[in-house]
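forwarding from the other thread:

> can someone predict this with pyridoxal-5'-phosphate?

sure thing
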Amino acid sequence: MTLNIQKIRNEFPALSRPVLFLDNPGGTQITRRSLDRIHDYLINKNANHGGAFETSRLSDNLVEEARQAAADFLNAERSDEIIFGPNMTSLTFNISRALAREFNRGDTIVVTRLDHDANISPWLLAAEDRGCRVWWVDFHPEDCTLDVEDFKNAMEENPRLVALGYASNAVGTINPVKELTALAHRAGALVYIDAVQYAPHGPIDVKDLDCDFLVCSAYKYFGPHEGVLYGRYDLLDRLRAYRVRPAPALPPGKFETGTGNFEHMAGALGALEYFEWIGKEFGSEFREITDDYIGRRRVFKQAMHAIRAYEFEISRTLLQELGDVNGLTLYGITDNRQLEQRVPTFSFTLQGWFPGELAGELDRQGIYTWNGNFYAVAVTERLGLEGNGGLLRSGAVHYNTLDEIRHFGDVLRKIAHKSVH
Ligand SMILES: Cc1ncc(COP(=O)(O)O)c(C=O)c1O
């Protein structure tokens, strides 16, 4: 065991509530460090940006600190490659409109059926506006892995843009994003990666991936509601932004429309300081495999490797528990030997129960889960579940204990038993 889970749980005030949070892919609980940062911002630094007075300077410094921390977390070259925004969806619509100005009639845009709709609809609408064709890359319904052959076929069309998910928020599959990015680049496409679901679970390195854009959302990794987008500087610089005239003409400001949610940028910094703490406290055994990085960047990588190692245990335990429930059909990767290819987001159906009813029954027993399509509507459609209430999703993160996972299994077994008898 790499992590001391009790010590970790003490970092989350909301975890004192006597319930089992398995709703994490919809939004995680917030760390104390994030809350402290937000509190401090609103009391000591609360001002608009660019003013000739102290609180405004303090606010601007804080935003730059948050930007640099995000750049270190994602291993971006420079802090002005980081754009803050209200959430991933808004950032993606914003960038998609700027990119679409450069698309031409007949160009191909590639999306995948495994993605959250926030990385599909912005591109469908951009394609519609510009008269582009859309190629939908399929996935294998048996294990919910992306159909790489189909992806390769799509590359034959020399697409302008490939929109790709890092990990599926519906079924947990991690895509081979580095390899797919290389294929897309060879075909001349730009690559836009949705890392919202992956970010709380493992290390991200935009330089190593060589992607053009990557986006995540701090509320999915223990911070407040704040979107974070990485874009390659030369691209951000070149693209024409939809902005008001007095706004900055250079990145990142040109893409940050209106007054920012500075207190949430402070909170997003707090979430990264939490990861820094994890790296220092529990990451020492990952020092060697992170020696490509220095300073805080290395500490972040150690933290995410430590988290990932513990989450493998969670996945193994969950697989065992869910495998023991009568009438349960699990979607996605179920082979213990393939855990490298998934995050601990497990979705299933249970015979005799609509997912919504099951989520209600679990709620009555103090267990929070999600049901439906989670906006990954292409996934539930492809699996033939969209008309039947979709899926029941249990999404663990590293603050969940193995005892909680076993308890979840016990409760499900009782519910399944009841539905048979
Ligand atoms: C994989 C994935 N992408 C995108 C989003 C949308 O993120 P946001 O709520 O920040 O717009 C979500 C939210 O559930 C998600 O899970």
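The domain at 34-274 is CATH 3.40.640.10 (Aspartate Aminotransferase; domain 2). thats all i got for now
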